[in-house]
Design brief:
- It is a single chain.
- This protein is an alpha+beta fold.
- The strands form 5 sheets. It has a 4-stranded mixed sheet with strand order 5-6-7-8.
- The chain is elongated and about 145 Å long.
- The two termini are about 70 Å apart.
- Mean pLDDT is about 80; it is low at about 300-310.
- The structure holds zinc ion.
- Zinc ion binds near residues 62, 83 and 86.
- Zinc ion binds near residues 52, 62, 82, 83 and 85.
């Protein structure tokens, strides 16, 4: 707060006019007279006394003196005075004021301290690039990324706050996203209703954008289904139409049914306890008396028995066994080993041996259909089911793949046949099984050659994954490619590609233009892998390969990719103008893209990666329009006009070159109009 109310000043040439106008009477130069502080010129350097308002707030009276001009300057945004110590408090107030009045810019210190600014920048980034994966690979993403981290936030958290669907904007789920099984389960349930069945591991990976390790973490596909209590079939209904808890129970039931052994289900062996047995038989003892005999089909034990399920199951088993002993109740134990990994014929034999001492049985082979249940598959139907996991009707899917995708189907094959190959042979099918040492560089390179001739490029992992259901050779390599990494004996796909191109170079195989461009970037050392530039040694390698191509070829391939982009962009602009009457802003673009499939080429993303910005492309486009004597919509004429005047809009400040170009376009356009009017 200003303390000084009046002060004495001397008449001089500069202040004479001003103070006479304010009603003072002039005496002589250098004469002193008193004036109101408020009447001083805003440039006056006189010292005034003020109290610090911030000290005042905490009950301290601090007086400091300041030059009048500085006093005024400091109060420009926030009308509070401060001593030296409290300056930082004022700084905060000023920032808040500027932020509130929308005058804080990215270049200002303190801009990023506001979360809303960080959110806004990330929102813009996502709208342009459509992703928050590998942000530091983008020109404007790198600094934003480190800014966000500086404030102990992650792009992932912020984009959730912005309401983005993580599945759409991240290639891979952030670490820990699915640590909570319920979240994972929830997402899987959505997929179940989407597909009307349990999704395959590939569908899970693609839809939830997760790494396969998550599925493994939750016990693989088989474990996952169990964990989710997913009951996808009526397999467990026995021939008496009773729903069994497990296949073990089902087999036991069908065995007893087939052998005409009467039984009761779910009886209580112990009066005061709530436990139930799986079967209760009535057998005739040697003395002719009837005796109740319970049957316990002990459930599947988890491999390591460490899971919650296994532990609690074993506890129940212990309690039940103790009760049988204590109450002197007779029972038959059927162990999981009777069933686990056994062929149906073996299971039948084991069951026969178990029941034979109690029942007067003769061994009879039970037909497979009856043993499983009347609803189960014939071998032919089983083959049809298995082939659903293959992209080619002549080949069975990889055994490993089938085992992951549908464990019980795979088990079913092994229960009926000696092995997977025998199953294939019975129906004249082939197997894709490649033994461990199958893949070598030569075989991989053969497939690369196939890619070059069929797709004119080396496909990346995503492309391979998309194509693998349509191209058997691609399917073949997809497994090895997806498991390749830099530490492998082959090196990663990047190393393989370079080496392959080197082979092409040696064997005079022509490398397509798009791949030459890839090599050029490596030779110039501008290619990034993750967040690092590729090493010097690779850029030298690329240079060597490129030696065979003359400058024109190289220039061609660069121009090609630039002009190809230009054509794509111009086509897209044409479409926007004919459908929407103007070139869409990024926000509009993302909005309309949802319903307009013609907008699917993400030109904004591609522009960001190119050497030019959107406004340059717009100007180039309008240049073409006037050259072709095409009409430009009014809204765009206005835009051109603003650019030609150098007016900024939406954070775009036209460069002198842009101004000039816009002016030329408008002139030409007017010229065209006048000509056509004549
Ligand atoms: Zn203070």
């Amino acid at each position: 707060m200003l303390i000084t109310k009046e002060m004495s000043v001397k008449w001089n040439k500069n202040n004479k006019k001003r103070f006479i106008e304010l009603g003072h009477t002039f005496t002589n130069y250098d004469d002193k007279f008193m004036v109101n502080v408020e009447d001083l010129s805003i440039h006056a350097p006189y010292l005034v006394e003020v109290t610090c308002d911030y000290c005042q707030d905490i009950g301290i009276h601090t007086v400091v003196s300041k030059q009048w001009c500085n006093y005024l300057k400091e109060r420009r945004n926030v009308q509070k005075d401060t001593c030296n110590i409290c300056k930082y408090k004022k700084y905060k107030d000023v920032l808040a004021f500027k932020q509130k009045s929308n005058i804080l810019t990215k270049e200002d210190k303190g801009y990023w301290t506001f979360k809303e600014n960080r959110l806004k920048a990330l929102d813009e980034f996502i709208k342009i690039n459509g992703t928050i994966s590998k942000m530091d690979n983008y020109q404007d993403g790198c600094s934003l990324y480190s800014t966000i981290l500086k404030f102990k936030e992650t792009p992932y958290e912020l984009s959730l706050e912005l309401g983005y669907n993580i599945n759409e904007i991240m290639d891979i789920k952030p670490n820990g996203y699915y640590n909570d099984f319920n979240i994972f389960k929830n997402d899987i349930e959505k997929l179940i209703s989407k597909y009307g069945r349990f999704p395959t591991s590939i569908e899970i990976k693609q839809n939830l954008t997760i790494d396969y390790k998550y599925i493994q973490k939750f016990g693989g596909m088989y474990g996952l289904k169990r964990k989710m209590n997913y009951d996808g079939s009526n397999d467990l209904i026995d021939n008496n139409n009773f729903y069994n808890n497990s296949t073990y129970e089902l087999f036991s039931a069908n065995f007893l049914i087939f052998n005409n052994v009467p039984y009761l289900r779910e009886r209580k062996p112990f009066k005061d306890e709530n436990y139930r047995s799986d079967f209760m038989l009535s057998i005739i003892k040697e003395n002719g008396e009837l005796q109740e005999l319970h049957v316990e089909v002990w459930g599947y034990e988890d491999h390591n028995n460490k899971s919650m399920f296994g532990e609690s199951y074993m506890k129940v088993r212990e309690i039940k066994e103790a009760l049988y002993k204590k109450n002197h109740v007779d029972y038959i134990s059927i162990e999981p080993s009777v069933f686990l990994h056994k062929k149906y014929s073996q299971i039948q034999e084991s069951l026969y041996n178990i029941f034979k001492p109690y029942l007067n049985l003769e061994f009879k082979h039970i037909e497979q259909e009856k043993f499983l249940s009347f609803k189960s598959l014939s071998d032919e139907e089983l083959m049809i089911e298995v082939l659903k996991y293959s992209n080619n009707n002549e080949y069975l899917p990889y055994a490993l793949y089938l085992r992951t995708e549908n464990h019980s189907l795979y088990q079913e094959v092994l229960k009926r046949f000696k092995n997977y190959t025998e199953f294939a042979e019975k129906f004249g099918k082939l197997t894709l099984v490649k033994s461990n040492g199958y893949w070598d560089k030569e075989k991989i390179f053969n497939i690369f050659e196939h890619m070059l001739s069929k797709y004119n490029k080396i496909l990346n992992r995503n492309e391979i994954n998309k194509l693998k259901y349509t191209d058997i050779l691609i399917d073949d390599i997809s497994h090895i490619i997806s498991s390749l990494n830099r530490k492998d004996k082959y090196g990663g796909i990047f190393e393989l590609k370079i080496e392959f191109f080197y082979n092409c170079h040696q064997n005079n195989i022509v490398i397509p233009k798009s791949e030459i461009k890839w090599l050029i970037n490596i030779s110039k050392n501008v290619t990034r892998r993750g967040n690092k530039l590729v090493s010097y040694e690779y850029s030298e390698f690329a240079k060597l390969i490129l030696e065979k191509y003359n400058d024109n070829d190289i220039k061609d391939s660069i121009i090609d990719s630039e002009s190809e982009l230009e054509i794509t962009i111009f086509n897209s602009f044409n479409h926007m103008i004919s459908k929407y009457g103007h070139i869409l802003s990024i926000n509009e673009y993302h909005e309309f893209k949802k319903t307009d499939s013609d907008l699917n080429v993400n030109i904004y993303k591609r522009i960001t990666r190119s050497s030019r910005d959107i406004n340059t492309y717009k100007l180039m486009y309008f240049q073409h329009c006037v050259d072709d004597n095409k009409l430009i919509p009014n809204q765009e004429i206005e835009w051109l006009f603003e650019v030609s005047c150098g007016r900024s809009r939406n954070q775009y400040k036209p460069t002198p070159e842009h101004q000039l170009l816009a002016k030329q376009i408008l002139d030409k356009y007017n010229n065209n109009l006048q000509l056509s009017a004549k």
